[in-house]
Amino acid sequence: MDLAQKPDVPVDGEIRRMMPNHVELLRLFWGSHYCEADWLFNPPADVVTDWLADTNIRIWGFSYKDMLLATLMFRRLAEKPWSIMSVDCICVHRDARGQGLTAMLLENVIYQGARMGWLQEGQPFTVLGFREGASLLHNLVPPLAKGSYAWCVGLAPPLRKESVLQLSVEGTKVILYNTWRVTYPNEKEQWEVCWVSGKGHVSLSLLRLVVPNNIQLWLSSVYIDFSRVRAQEKEGWSLSDGDLLLECWGRPISLTGMPYRHF
User: Fold this and answer.
1) Residue 130 counted as domain residue
2) 259 assigned to some structural domain
3) 171 and 116, same structural domain?
4) 129: which strand partners?
5) Mean pLDDT of 132-142
6) CA–CA distance from 63 to each of 10, 35, 52, 60, 97 (Å)?
């Protein structure tokens, strides 16, 4: 628990837990500063409300002179004794990047986790972070693994808007999660594979057949080793320029069999 130290907060700055009355503030902030030119992160108000009410989730924000500049979500994933957690929804105001705000909020996670009893002295724990692109942990911990993405557009009939979708591919269960990103120029929703049952062996060509055609599906090499996939299986799939970094504090664990959502 060496990192369980209260972070240094600048004068006129404040780290606060986001509450139900902050739903629209969070949606506005993420819509303005989480999004990039080619995708949109826009979770509905009821989803953000559920996050804020969930006893296994905390969202903290850093404000400077009452202006929100950064957010971070801390989520308990495992069954009790709550030894596995994750960090999500890391977002920094476009004009405040490069100032160490992410590192400060990550230090706050460890500090608050110890205060709440989610992290306990002498007990093993894991805090996971899946990040796209460069590491956001600012040298607090080294990246544990690096993987690539592949994506496709589905071929099955379109799906009504849902948040989670379970598919079956030759008896293998595949859980998709709606990231609420809208890709351009085709304006299809972007969904992501967040869990594959068993050892993660699934036919890419058969998976594409059962994915709705109004979805752009993203799959990381956390679940599929693309280097081992035969050429004919990759038809219709494209490799992304971006990479996926798995970072963790504490005890590294295997993700096999553990559903995981990140956005």
Assistant:
1) no
2) no
3) no
4) 247
5) 58
6) 10, 20, 18, 10, 14
